């Protein structure tokens, strides 16, 4: 079973700039879903950043993945990576966690 990661994304530029890159950011995240790394993502409330939940081999692989995020490449957000071991989880996650 792989560990899960919560990635806290914090915007460092005004929302107008964030929104101008939003579609590119979402297309980037879609690649993470297609590769089986991501489980969920979305904006924080209030909208000061986002949250992403995924499984990766290591914290370094998370950082490598997100350095290609358009938000990172345009210097409009920072990332905090939190790793945890899912000791208890809903049975719906069994397949996601086993691969």
Can you walk me through this structure?
The protein has 99 residues and is an alpha+beta fold. It has a single domain (3-98), classed as Dimeric alpha+beta barrel (Alpha-Beta Plaits, 2-Layer Sandwich). 37% of the residues lie in helices and 29% in strands. The protein has four helices and four strands, in the order E-H-E-E-H-H-E-H. The chain has helices spanning 15-34, 59-66, 70-73, 94-98; strands spanning 4-11, 38-43, 49-55, 77-84. A four-stranded antiparallel sheet has the order 2-3-1-4, with helices on one face. Belongs to the YciI family. Residues 5-85 form the YCII-related domain. Keywords: Hydrolase. InterPro entries: Dimeric_a/b-barrel, YCII.
- Number of DSSP E strands: 4
- Structural domain tally: 1
State the CATH class.
Alpha Beta
CATH superfamily: Dimeric alpha+beta barrel
Strand order of the largest sheet: 2-3-1-4
Poorly predicted parts: none
Quaternary assembly? single chain
Mean pLDDT: 94
Could you say what the CATH topology is called? Alpha-Beta Plaits
Element-by-element helix/strand order: EHEEHHEH
Number of helices, counting only DSSP H or I runs of 4 residues or more: 4
Overall CATH architecture: 2-Layer Sandwich
Short structural description:
The chain is an alpha+beta fold.
Describe the structure using short key phrases:
single chain; alpha+beta; 4 helices; 29% strand; 4-stranded antiparallel beta sheet; Alpha-Beta Plaits; elongated
Blueprint of the fold:
Elements (H helix, E strand, L loop, with lengths): L3 E8 L3 H20 L3 E6 L5 E7 L3 H8 L3 H4 L3 E8 L9 H5 L1
Antiparallel strand pairs: 1-3, 1-4, 2-3
Organism: Helicobacter winghamensis
Protein name: GTP cyclohydrolase
Pfam family, one: YCII
């Amino acid at each position: 079973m792989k560990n899960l990661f919560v990635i806290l994304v914090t915007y460092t530029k005004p929302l107008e700039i964030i929104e101008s890159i939003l579609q590119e950011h979402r297309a980037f995240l879609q690649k993470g879903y297609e590769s089986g790394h991501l489980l969920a993502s979305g904006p924080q409330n209030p909208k000061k950043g986002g949250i992403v939940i995924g499984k990766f081999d290591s914290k370094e692989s998370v950082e490598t993945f997100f350095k290609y995020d358009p938000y990172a490449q345009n210097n409009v957000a920072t990332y905090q990576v939190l790793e945890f071991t899912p000791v208890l989880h809903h049975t719906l996650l069994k397949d996601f966690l086993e691969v």
